[in-house]
Amino acid sequence: MDYKTIVIGAGPGGYVCAIRLGQLGIKTLVVDKKYVGGVCLNVGCIPTKALIHVSHIIEMNKKAQKEIGFEFDNFKFDIEKIRKWKDGIVKRLTTGIMNLWKANGVDFIKGEAKILDKNTVEIKKETGEVERFKTDDIVIATGSSPFILKGFEPDGETIWTSDDAVSLKKIPQKLLILGGGAIGLEFAYVYRNLGSDVVVIELMPQILPGMDKEMVNELAKVLRRKGIKIYTESRAKEVNKKNGKIELVVDIKGKEQIFEGDVLLVSIGRKPNSANMGIENIGVKLDEKGFIKVDKKRRTNIENIFAIGDVTEPPLLAHKASREGVVVAEVIAGKDSIFDPKTIPGVVYTQPEFASCGLTEEEAREKGIDIEVGKFPLIANGRALSYGESMGLAKIIVNKENDEILGVHILSPEASSIIGEGALAIEMSAKAKDIGLTIHPHPTFGEILMEAAENVHKKAIHILNR
After folding, report:
1. CA-CA distance, 465 to 389, in Å (whole number)?
2. What is the Cα–Cα distance from 13 to 143, expressed in whole angstroms?
3. What pLDDT sits at residue 1?
4. Residues marked as catalytic
5. What is the three-class DSSP state of 109?
6. Which domain holds residue 121?
7. What is the phi-psi region of residue 254: left when phi exceeds 0, alpha when psi lies from -120 to 50, beta otherwise?
8. Going along 269-392, which residue ranges are E strands?
9. Is the pTM of this model over 0.90?
């Protein structure tokens, strides 16, 4: 049986693309050698957020006893039950995807795909059987995998990747994390609340390199208050295994220091899965980092071959991949669809959450834009205090010339939900006064965005407008 379109990869780009293709009446086959739902659903976005939820429950219970007046006798948690609960969420969601495929006439084969030419895909199934399919269009959605640093190769026991960390194999007494990006910080938060002593080692001058400096500094304060040790401008030189433990040799601003731990989590980024699928044989162009080059319709240099998600270009985010998947499906169906967002929001799911979209203050100034900045602290928000949180803020970057919103940055509980308002504002070229004039429900965390917008014009009610 041949197909109009074959989608290689069943992650948040590939599975969404396939569903949309099915909705449009296009006969589609999805192939993936490992996961339905990809890294995101199986060992990434979803299970990590489940663990963060568990971690937050533990943190809130401790806070309830210390600050509010609750008493719990023998409060404890069962790691095996937590693991089963997490895996149950993944199973439910992957089953849902397969049901949606079936309902939309999409077929799935678990196996390894190789592109033989621009219209032929060979699939080696789990059984070892090899089958070839003809197709009009191919969508590459093979995602990314953890970047492996030479000399720090994972063994699954004392040196982990994020895949090992999310499996909840054990709770190390001392966890060293190499890399202060979103993934590293999320696992730092999880394992700290599960009982680990956590140390984060970051090469760059700040954690979350490239993000708004003021916001990142505030997040670093929060994490340090939670007991997470953070070292920046620190280069890991080597790791040694001794008696089931590890020693990490680190150069910290020119001075060598040795950190001892039970586990080292290497979380220094991800690389595109663009090799070993045959694209090198048919001339699909890559950039210098191995990402597949695509246009706004997500076409490669070969007209009927498309690529979406992490395999194309940063930011490596599931929601970006999903939107690209919809665009490609519609392009294949002959619709006039392009991928051309003004901003793509990103979230770090610590507690409080850090969400951001658009320009940072530093980026705006580097571009020579005359800006106004509005801020509102979480400590002045009633909902935050009743929730037990006081550290954080909302920050809005505005073009002084026309009041247009250029960037929105939020450090707060529920920031992941609030940031959608900021992304919409940027997409619509909204002005700070538009958010300020919009009546927000009270009491909510979302009010901090409204007050930050009002602070741009020194009109915020619940702070002194300096």
Report:
1. 22
2. 8
3. 65
4. 442
5. strand
6. 3-43+83-146+271-332
7. left
8. 270-272, 305-307, 346-348, 353-358, 371-377
9. yes
Partners of 230 in beta bridges: 200
- What are the pLDDT digits (tens) for 73-131? 888 899 999 999 999 999 999 999 999 999 999 999 999 999 999 999 999 998 899 99
SS3 144: strand
Q: How many CA atoms lie within 13 A of 79 on its CB side?
A: 12
Please tell me the total count of domains within the chain. Answer: 3
Q: 236 in a domain, yes or no?
A: yes
321 touches 309 (CB < 8 A): yes
Token couple for 253: 């601003």
Check whether residue 101 and residue 21 sit in a common domain: yes
Q: Which residue has the tokens 């982990």?
A: 160
Q: Are residues 31 and 134 in the same domain?
A: yes
Flag whether pLDDT at 464 surpasses 90.
yes
10 Å CB burial of residue 190 (0-12, 13-18, 19+) is: buried
DSSP 1-64: --EEEEEE--STTHHHHHHHHHHTT--EEEEESS-SSHHHHHHSHHHHHHHHHHHHHHHHHHHI
